Amino acid sequence: MKIAVACMGELVAQHFGHCEGFSIFETEHGQIVGEKAVANPGHKPGFLPNFLGDMGIEVMISGGMGGGAIEIFNERKIEVILGAEGSAKNAVESYLKGELKSTGSICHEHKHAHECGNH
């Protein structure tokens, strides 16, 4: 399974579209077996969910995300986990253990992007 985490450095980004990049974790049998970093190619409405979906992502983890991106991920049958924080690797490990649950932190206005994940 491929799991993507929106990141600022090694930490979970609080706003999906404005992250520095994505950590892509390859997992097998509940364990991380590989990791690579992919730079954010740019924030354009509707682009990133398809970009990640085309890479074979099955789970997307972020602090917060806009409703439009969530809809595209849902249409592509990609699970979205919101409200995550801390280390990207720890978030994936928690997800694999069944301990990371989505809080549904939806970002409604881009002008408040710096606050996403904190509501």
TrEMBL record:
Top-level taxonomic group: Bacteria
Pfam families named among the record's database cross-references: Nitro_FeMo-Co
Residues of the signal peptide: none
Gene3D superfamilies: Dinitrogenase iron-molybdenum cofactor biosynthesis domain
Residue span(s) of domain Dinitrogenase iron-molybdenum cofactor biosynthesis: 9-96
UniProt-recorded name of the protein: Dinitrogenase iron-molybdenum cofactor
Classification lineage: Bacteria, Bacillati, Bacillota, Clostridia, Lachnospirales
